[in-house]
Amino acid sequence: MNLMKKLFVAILTLGLTVFLSACASDPQIASTAPADFAKQLQEDLIKAKPGSVIEIPAGKFKFDKTLSLNVPKVTIRGKGMDKTILSFSRQSKGSAGMMVKADDFVIEDLAIEDAAGDALKVENSSNITMRRVRVEWTGGPKETNGPYGLYPVTCKNVLIEDCVAIAASDAGIYVGQSDGVIMRRNRAEKNVAGIEIENTKNADVYENIATNNTGGIMAFN
Hints:
Radius of gyration: 20 Å
Low-confidence stretches: 7-32
Number of helices: 2
Shape: globular
Strand content: over 45%
Largest sheet: 12 strands, parallel
Distance between the termini: 81 Å
Helix content: 10-25%
Order of helices and strands: HHEEEEEEEEEEEEEEEEEEE
Mean pLDDT: 88
Number of strands: 19
Oligomer: single chain
């Protein structure tokens, strides 16, 4: 092999190595989770016990039905709202991406995308924390998008902080029929209502950003 051919092979090998390394570090391309992770995650939610911490690795994971949790004192934690992505673009069952009916619930550092209905609904629960969670319909604003992004209803003691809600067909962040709410440093974009507080007592809403919504921040009693 002459010098030019050796040089070409060396450059090609180096380029392929760099490309594979980049793929391995990009959660959209590769993940440390097993291939059947969607099934495993639902099983983890069903088998969870009070005090469980469910860690979700970086990656984009596809689900075809609602994830549900009914066990109190559970934490669900990803690796970042742009690194751990739960995608429901192929959802065929269920009215929400994730449905929670459990006290002392914490969810943080992940994204829920393209739910058929509401992205994250928490109902009849107390002591709820949503932190650094992104909910988004990635095709932009459409009437066919799910109605609510972050959606705690009939809850007590709710903290929503540093979250992002994009392109819900009704409200990006909605709190209804609840008591004791702190909503801070969130961002709501391209929703019909960016942030909506309805029939709720003791709600403290501050340092949020609402842009390009039909209505930015709305309160109803």
